[in-house]
Design goal:
This protein has about 140 residues and is of the alpha/beta class. Helix content is about 35%, strand content about 20%. Bound molecules: 1,3,4-trihydroxy-5-OXO-cyclohexanecarboxylic acid. Keywords: Amino-acid biosynthesis, Aromatic amino acid biosynthesis, Lyase.
């Protein structure tokens, strides 16, 4: 059974009430529950933090034993050399995801410290971006 983890960065704990025109009305846990049921053959975990160092600690903790990391580093995507370096340091492949199409938004969201070291990038499909990332790990 593949062992995957979704790691969510800052403010993604507010999904469902945060800028719902961009991020939708579903809470992450509502979405996560349906996804866990949809993929019974995947050992799927979820971790969220608003704190950069906690995200790095989690990436280091899982990054040598899990089959895949699905990472939405949220705003840290655009600023965090530390998270970028953590991805370089580990052996577990990382798929970068975003709910919104960051390229159709402000210019500061076009820069990513995650992408250069990610296995792939999925963005702009709403919460379905996470599911597409899971599918990519199942079929690889
Ligand atoms: C986001 C896009 C980021 O630019 C933003 O800071 C987020 C969410 C997304 O999933 O669309 O918090 O990563």
């Amino acid at each position: 059974m593949k062992k995957l983890i979704i790691i969510n960065g800052p403010n993604l704990n507010l999904l469902g009430k945060r800028e719902t025109n961009i991020y939708g009305n579903l809470t992450f846990m509502e979405f996560f529950d349906t996804v866990v049921k949809k993929y019974p053959n995947v050992a799927l975990e979820h971790f969220q933090s608003n704190i950069e160092g906690e995200l790095i600690d989690k990436i280091q903790e899982v990054g040598f034993s899990y089959d895949g990391i699905i990472l939405n580093a949220a705003a840290y995507t655009h600023t965090s050399i530390g998270i970028g370096d953590a991805i370089k340091a580990i052996t577990t492949p990382v798929v970068e995801v975003h709910i919104s199409n960051t390229f159709s938004r402000e210019e500061f969201r076009h820069q990513s410290y995650i992408s250069p070291n990610a296995k792939g990038v999925i963005l702009g499909f709403g919460l379905q971006s996470y599911e597409l990332a899971i599918e990519s790990f199942i079929s690889s």
